[in-house]
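Worked Example 4.2. Consider the chain below.
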Amino acid sequence: MAQEFIYNPPRDPFLEILYEDDAIVVVNKPSGLLSVPGRDPRYHDSILSRVRERAPEAQAAHRLDMATSGIMAVPKNSRVSGILGKQFQKRSTLKIYYAWVYGVPESPEGVIKLPLITDIANRPYQIVDFANGREAITQYAVIHTEANRSRSLVRLHPLTGRSHQLRVHMKEIGHPILGDPLYASEEIRDLAPHLLLHAWSLTFYHPVSNQKMTFRHDPPFPVPVKLF
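Applying the procedure from the previous section yields the following structure tokens:
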């Protein structure tokens, strides 16, 4: 029998705010915390529920996987959410991630184009499906490789925003992200205490002033080079 999942999200800090004004809150989400509340009351704790303690009408314009850490922009009301959400839909935002992956990709940089769809019989897994999958595109570049070639630090730029996109794409080219509980083998999963995937940078246009804004936050895991 599969062991029941126990949700025990980190609470210190309760909410790491990088920026706040009347329209938005920009936060650094830790690994292990949901972006939005789950249907089950046991999974209510999330970035959105925490932001709502200070902005009760806050909405979600985008999400990060529970296991992924990094930058999230949270609109404080539905009107602002609609404006910001359209930017994500139209791909006018810029998102940069960093991850440690298993081994060394054959090419130091490239573009992965593999359409994705939910595996209905095995949710929440995503699978490649060329007939029915939705377009998914990821640019990647190897930034650093360990001397023993056991792992590489990669810079990831998703041009689309499919669920689990970066995790599936790296797995499909033979280099799963370390610590991934869904897409890595047990051996590779156990090489890290949690998923080593971090949303390092987010660029968007302020939903009220239309000013271009960029926020960055370093990963919670060690990196041996300067990030850019």
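The chain has a mean pLDDT of 96. Residues 116 and 222 are 30 Å apart (CA to CA). Compare this with Example 4.1 before moving on.
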